[in-house]
Amino acid sequence: MGARSLTAGEKLPSIRALAKTMQVSPSTVVEAYDRLAAEGLIRSRPGSGFTVAGSLPPLALADVEPRLDREIDPFWVSRQSLDAAPEILKPGCGWLPADWLAHEPVRKAMRSLARADAAILADYGSTRGSPALRRILARQMVEEGIDAAPDQILLTGSGTQALDLLCRFLLQPGDTVLLDDPCYFNFQALLRAHRVNVVSVPYTASGPDVARFAEALATHRPRLYVTNSAIHNPTGASLSPQVAHKVLTLAAAHDLTIIEDDIFADFEIEPAARLAALDGLSRVIRIGSFSKTLSASVRCGFIAARPDWIEGLIDLQVATAFGGPSPIAAEIIAAVLSDGSYRKHIAALRTRLAKRRREAAAVLEAMGIRPWVEPRGGYYLWCRLPYGRDAADLAKTALRESVVLAPGNVFSVALSAPDLMRFNVAQMDSRAIEVLRRSL
Amino acid sequence: MGARSLTAGEKLPSIRALAKTMQVSPSTVVEAYDRLAAEGLIRSRPGSGFTVAGSLPPLALADVEPRLDREIDPFWVSRQSLDAAPEILKPGCGWLPADWLAHEPVRKAMRSLARADAAILADYGSTRGSPALRRILARQMVEEGIDAAPDQILLTGSGTQALDLLCRFLLQPGDTVLLDDPCYFNFQALLRAHRVNVVSVPYTASGPDVARFAEALATHRPRLYVTNSAIHNPTGASLSPQVAHKVLTLAAAHDLTIIEDDIFADFEIEPAARLAALDGLSRVIRIGSFSKTLSASVRCGFIAARPDWIEGLIDLQVATAFGGPSPIAAEIIAAVLSDGSYRKHIAALRTRLAKRRREAAAVLEAMGIRPWVEPRGGYYLWCRLPYGRDAADLAKTALRESVVLAPGNVFSVALSAPDLMRFNVAQMDSRAIEVLRRSL
After folding, report:
1. Distances (CA, A) of B392 to B92, B368, B440
2. Where is the HTH gntR-type domain (chains A, B) (predicted)?
3. Chain B contact for A199 (CB, 8 A cutoff)
4. Which of A105, A218, A413, B294 lies at a 20 to 30 A Cα distance from B238?
């Protein structure tokens, strides 16, 4: 066929004829045609051979362009970061660079799973998800003082889906939910989808402000409180045992359910206080995922909750997702967690991050940007900008130079953080720092 | 250490000491301790070495036992089937046996992806999901006469999650939704979670009963209609072009949105009429997944909709799931679809199923169980039981003999199918047939 161009609808030579012309085997032609058909460049119809397909519009640029016109709302950081082109820098994003994660253990697990039974590669999993992974999680929780049996654990598609499923299970439209101020921006975005009212209490360096927490329970009668206890997002603070005890006492008095999102647990060197451990999974539900330390591409979250809630959660997850994570994703994670490579990976990661936090804090302080607390682990620094600087303005300026920042108010229900900013120390390279300096 | 048993809390020998005693390298001991730690049999604490862990309750039997006491409701078939032990037979379930699916192409794709960039193995994907997979889907849709650009396609965690996301986007609590009677039972279960009213119209051998459809629109003013056009679940019927045209005309007159769940598309030899193709993705939204033909373990669904709805759907999916499928799952599917093996797999599957449908129909007719239509493809036979037989009673009897059946009323909003039953011809082996014969 040489370089002659083909027009849409034109018939291609038959497999046999082309094989003869090109002096290759018919199976080589079949393979080539199959690839072209799968790419949509040619079409195959039973009995009518192959024809040239029509043209198709290219992928829209919107997939990769920063959206300069987008309002700064709870979606701002995630939307700008998730769809960022490779050259965009993301000191505002919520994850580690890909090469900091456990990709070697994931490769090993994938090669090994490629040899697994057809059932693992092709079947729906059980409704709770991989027994192997639930057993590993149950063991870990017992170590942390949370007495969870494997059948009290439900795997979900992601940590966010764990929270979403619980909101569906626990909330009615119009209910009130309590959040920390500041808190992870997606809690707000998710609760909005559930048509509930959101109230917030200020977060201190040792957990929620207890007096304001008590006041909020008395005034608003929230049904649910959602929080991170260890390495709180965005502040990096950790809950103290005293505050944990008071929070649980108040929760019991007001029949409040608590979801403890423990997604940053593995970044801690020594575990902080946990509501789930103090409470014993009675009114506290623990959720988590592996996206921050292991892989965000192999997605899986989990819920650990009181046994009598699990059946209802399973029904809801079957109805709305026909199960939890990709079974294959859960098996990859179980494999990575059950050999020693993950423990080594995490140990190295903690050391690397501790160094990065110190370096980034020094660079920021030199610019007059002051960390609010010194976190016990993880990759966030929650910082106050120099006097009079507005974080949203700064984020818009930086975005024009292809740097995604995380301005304080996206984390604040009460919009109380106009001069604060969350920095991801693992994503702060010299160009990002330079743009930040220029934009200040 | 020999056969001496260890008690909880007991300290294990140091790595160096054990390596010396056992005459192995310290790295061998580290690896062994790591495995035991990951299994939770021993604990490691920085500075204090390894100790023996406490015991843990075993996996509850509830994970694998048939639930004889469960009421026959829209969850009955999925819950009994998903958690069935390997020895349970499932002629009532909604999927093919694992070894009928594309596990060889999946193995190949996994081996190849194990060598991919760290970004693919570790990063969150873009908000719409794998560009490679969306491009393949767009090309396929253009071939089917549905003019969808890649950025009109949104990948989701599963076909069910596609439907769930759309319901969140389109519906308010209290809205009315129209279903076919009978229809896929999970449509009912899912809509219940959305707090909407459900009404239904009888499904005929060529689509919904048009007169009853018109009546339902006028009386109930539904906001949404959810249907399968090709190889309708459970009946196996396919929509005729005449009915498709009438349905769309009525939908336009009543401003009805339609979700066409095209999950069985690849089982058709010649495509039937499609609402999405006639309508051009204006008021019709197409959803689908790869769980029925390729793998239910590598989960991924998709939505193809009008471009101005995609942004809102992305925000909702970020809020409630922080994205769609595992990026790694989407890449496995893109790889399988873009070489010729999937096309060959599907061609072989269609032939195999046609033979099985004929054989199963003959066996059932010999028992007085009569197929309602002869399906154009797929693995379902929707059948009427002999006079006076109750499908729910039959299902309960068969379950006591470890056979899961799918009684008609789980598919019927109006409970109009007490004497009908859906059979999965690929899951009907001789023991299942024997139990069915005995239970009748």
Report:
1. 12, 17, 11
2. 1-55
3. no
4. B294
